[in-house]
Amino acid sequence: MSNPLFSLWNAGLFSALLLLSLSSCKQDPKFSISGDIYGAEGRSVVVEKSDFAGHWIPVDSTRVSSTGSFSLKVASPGSPEIYRLALGSSFVYFPVDSVEHIVLSSSADKFGREFSLSGSRDAERLADFEKKLQKLNFNNPDSVKAFKRNVYSEFIRDGEGSILSYYILTKTSGSQPLYNPADPEDARYYAAVATQFLQYRPGDPHAGMLEQVSKEALRRRKAADGKQKVIEASEISMIDIALDDEKGRCVKLSDIVGRGEPAILLFSMMNEPESPAFNRAVSDILKSRPSLRVYHVSFDEDRYAWREAAANLPWTTVIDPLGMHSSAASDYNVATLPAIFIYDRAGNLVDRADDFNDLSRKLSKI
Known about the structure:
This protein is an alpha+beta fold and 366 residues long. It is 36% helix and 26% strand. The chain has ten helices and 18 strands. It starts with a helix and ends with a helix.
C-alpha cells in the first residue's frame, strides 16, 4: 500500500516543479506593430523609442517582405510611451500602453505623411491629430491659436493623463513647437496636462517632467516684468545664466562675460553625432582668438554622458537638463540648435551668429 504522506509530498513536488516550469517559461510582455508599407519591399524599418532628451534610440528592426508586409514584437514599456517607426528619414509615431497590437498601413513615398493606425483608441486618435496638423498654416497666428484650442478640446481636455496628450503637447513641426511653454498662453495647457498626469498617473515619469516645465513657466512669468528679451538687434545688456559645470560647481555667464575680452555663448547638445565637429569648430576659433571667453550650455538629459564629454573641453561647459523648455532657451529665443551669441568686451550682447564662418567674421569686428 502506498504511503499517503509520500503521495501528498509527491503531488506537492510535482505542482512546485510545474509552477517553476511555467514561471521559467514566462516571457516579458510585448507589444507588436505590423502592417503594410507599399513600395518598401526589402527595405529596413526600425522601431525607435525616445530617451526624454530628444534622442531616439533604436529598439528593434526588420525588413519589409516582398509583399510589402512587416511585423515586429517589442518589450512593452513600464508606463505608456511614444514610439516611432522609421523608414529611412521618415517616421510614423504611435502610442503604446501595454501589450497592444498596432497596425500600420502606408506607402514608401508618403510614409510619415499619409498613413492609418489602428489597434488602440489612442493610436487612431494620434493618426487623426497628425492629419489635422499637416493642414495647419503656421504662418497664420490666428489659425494656430484656434487650432491649439480645438486640439485641446478634442484630444487633451478629457485625456486623463494619456500619452497622446503628452505627445501632442510636446509636438514640433520642423523646429517649431506647437505648444511652447515659454508662451504664457501655452503654459496653461502644460499646467492642465501636468495636473492630469499627477492626478491619474502620479508614478508616470512624464508627470515629473510636465510638472517641472509648468513650474518653470510660472517662475518665468513672475520674473518677466521689466526683463528684456534677446532680439537680433545691437547692444543689449547681458541676460545672466547660472548652471552647474561638469564638477558640480555653479558657474554664471557673468563670470565669463564683461571681463575685458569678447565672449561667446553657445547652446547645443553634447551627445549628438554632430557634436565632435561642433567642438572642433570651437577649438579652431579659440586657436585664432585665444583670449576669447566661451560659455557653453548643453541641453543633455544624461548627465553622466555629458560630464564625460565636457571633461575633455578646455572651455566653460554647463548643463541645462530642461533643454528647450528652460528659461535660458526662452530668454535667448533659442528655437534650433546649435545657437551662437556674441558678447563684446564690455559685456553687451551685440550679435548672433548663423554658423562658425559667420562667427569668425563678426568676431573680427570686435
